[in-house]
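Q: What does the predicted 3D structure of NlpC/P60 domain-containing protein look like?
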Amino acid sequence: MTRTSTRYTDHETNGGPGMERRTGLIRTLIALSVLLFWAPVSTAAAAPGAAAAGGCGVLAPGASAAAERAIAAACAEVDAGTWYTWGGGHGAQPGPTYGQVDPSDPEDSKHDPERRGFDCSGLVRHAYAKATGSDLLNGVASQQYYTHRAAERFTAAQGLAPLLPGDLLAWGTSKDLHHIAIYLGAGKMVEAKESGTKLMVSDVRLNGSYFGAVRVNTGQVTGHIHQTWGTGVWTKAEPFLKAARVYAFPHSTTIRVQCQKRSEMVESDGYKNDVWSYLPDYKAWVTNIYIKGPAWLENVPECKS
């Protein structure tokens, strides 16, 4: 810019025929130079923290500060070349751990016990723990998707349009959610994909097994929060035993109860109860036998329909 301005002054001083034409041309060139110089600065200012093309980072506006920090934590592991390891990231505290041999894929995962890293849900757990300073999402993919900390949920049919960076994408079925990743925006996600690979940025796979997404509430949780007990406890589409299965709690799980009602009597593990609770995060029912507390939960309203 300074050199162009100096040349312009020199032309003015020299004078002579054609000076106006040269002056006009030089002014045009100066204007173009200013435009070219300013455009990238404006773009960068409009999207602070955005990753370079093809990189790992926040790729769209609208994310919360906590979501941006979670993405930064996950991307730091990508940049560090951290490995996928089956079972990795599920130690007593969030963070990389040595993996295990995956019984369903022993050949590809044979080196996982030698590598410190994350599986898909281990990475999500680590990212949001780093973002918030609290172990909010300690669990497998299904527990993270069905978290009682859900601020909003999105179906597969809604696609990517309503999503924001930091939302969690899940694949599988209601009975078996087997993969989870963190959305970056612009159709990209960061994930721990499979044994034999390192953590990576990928195109979101909106294939037949894409289940939906959840936005994590990192603030105060609202609603009636309770804890289940037992292992392999199935939730049901309706409040009776022969209803379709929705999801099985692998172990004690924190749940949000919307309401409760009397329905089919259930006898199990030495208990007998006809009260069922509706769980809005699962869109399913569970017998109150497996919810810690009295047979009729205190302060939880009765379902009216």
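A (community wiki): The structure tokens above were generated from the sequence. The longest strand covers residues 176-185. Residues 1-49 have pLDDT under 50 and may be disordered.
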